[in-house]
Amino acid sequence: MTLAACLAATFGSLEAAPLGPDPQKAPPPSEVQILYENALQAIAEGRKNDASDTLVRVIEKESMHAGAYLEVALVQCSLGRALEAERLFAIIETRFDPPRAILELIAEARDTGCNHWQALSSTSVSVTRGLDMNVNQGARNPTYIVEQDGGQIELPLLDEFLPQHDNYTALNVEYTRDLTPNGLTGFAQYFGRRNDSLGQYDSDSIYAGVDSQYRFGAWPVRATGMVGFTALGGKLYQRQVQLLARTGVPLPLPSRMQLHVTGGVTRNDYSALTNFDSNTFDVLGQLSWRGDKVYTSLSQGWQADHAVRERPGGDRHGYSTTLLARRALWGEVSGELSYSYQSWRSGQAYAPGLINTVRDQNTRVARAVLSWPIARNQWLRLETRVVRNRENISIFQYDNRQIQLSWQWQDR
């Protein structure tokens, strides 16, 4: 357990109860409480420098706030400022009468050492075995009807454009690490999938980026920058650059409910396709509620996808809706259900002279997951997914079903 976690567990009920209040100098309790809660939030988000500055303000306003003294001492220790941490530990031991648990916490911090800042890191690995009923997103209809010379011609599709199923093995590795003591984090992710027979659809993706958290008054903001590369069949398929900003909206919502808004811009470059490069802008709102055993969320997004060159169909716009529910079922087993709907509408005919239709795409995805722990930091996840893609251009319509079993491990 981290020092911050120990602290939160020990002092969670003492935030507004300093051991020896000084009524002559103390400002209204609400002001100190707000500052103290902001400091706790900064600790939880990894913004240790911000937390230290805020805790110093708490002590300046309420000189006998024992919780603030302990927390700023632990923060200074975690930042490698040994002399300052020891000075604060001594104040706590002499000025207050800390209980045994707090003395043990201070002793643990001293034993661990405060000589340098320790960057936290995390690694997770997932290995998956699954069945995909439509690896190539093959067309639902085996024929395509075209208008020619005032009549209709029915053209059969080649086998390679019809659904092909296969078993697959997938590997996912994620790594995160603190880059600074004030909430800047680096991350990297690899995802690879190998089909048993259809090797031309094997895929590899690598993403890397940085993530940082800020707070502007009551508005928490999380900013992310990321680059990614995707290979298909052993050849580079796509390059991607993405910038995101996610903020919590401080509305007077019911207890345990939160509203977040995310805005982003993405640049997509396709190495294997001509004229498909694009810039995508999106805004997503998410309303969530977390209970003791249940978590639910509703997300609504709007997207604008601008073609860089003469892409088939030109620019397009769309919207998405996602419903998700997660619940503890029995023991430590949990279940998750989700349903998503994505709509895209192009601005021009897809291929004038051949396909004179403006593409209108609607995709529905239903997903169910069972997850249960099998050992310390290890889980098994059984997941099934059903996809229904419906469009007004029949050769792009497809159905798919997947089922997979994954083993997951996380180092903390």
Please provide a written account of the structure.
With 412 residues, the protein is α+β, with helices and mostly antiparallel strands. It folds into two domains: 3-112, no CATH class; 121-410, Beta Barrel (Porin). The chain contains six helices and 16 strands. The protein has helices at residues 3-11, 29-44, 48-61, 66-78, 82-95, 100-112; strands at residues 121-132, 143-148, 151-156, 166-178, 184-195, 203-216, 219-232, 235-248, 257-270, 278-290, 294-307, 316-330, 333-351, 355-375, 378-391, 398-410. Helix 1 runs antiparallel to helix 6 (100-112). The longest helix is centred in the N-terminal third of the chain and has 16 residues, at 29-44.
Specify the number of helices: 6
* Helical percentage: 10-25%
CATH class categorisation of the largest domain:
Mainly Beta
- The CATH level-2 architecture of the largest domain is identified as Beta Barrel
What would you give as the CATH superfamily of the largest domain? monomeric porin ompg
SSE pattern, N- to C-terminal: HHHHHHEEEEEEEEEEEEEEEE
CATH topology of the largest domain: Porin
Low-confidence stretches: 1-29
* Biggest sheet strand line-up: 1-4-5-6-7-8-9-10-11-12-13-14-15-16
Shape: elongated
Q: How many β-strand stretches?
A: 16
Compute the average pLDDT. 87
Structural class: alpha+beta
Percent of residues in β-strands = over 45%
- Report the biggest beta sheet as strand number plus sense, adding barrel if it closes: 14 strands, antiparallel, barrel
Kindly report how far apart the N and C termini lie.
9 Å
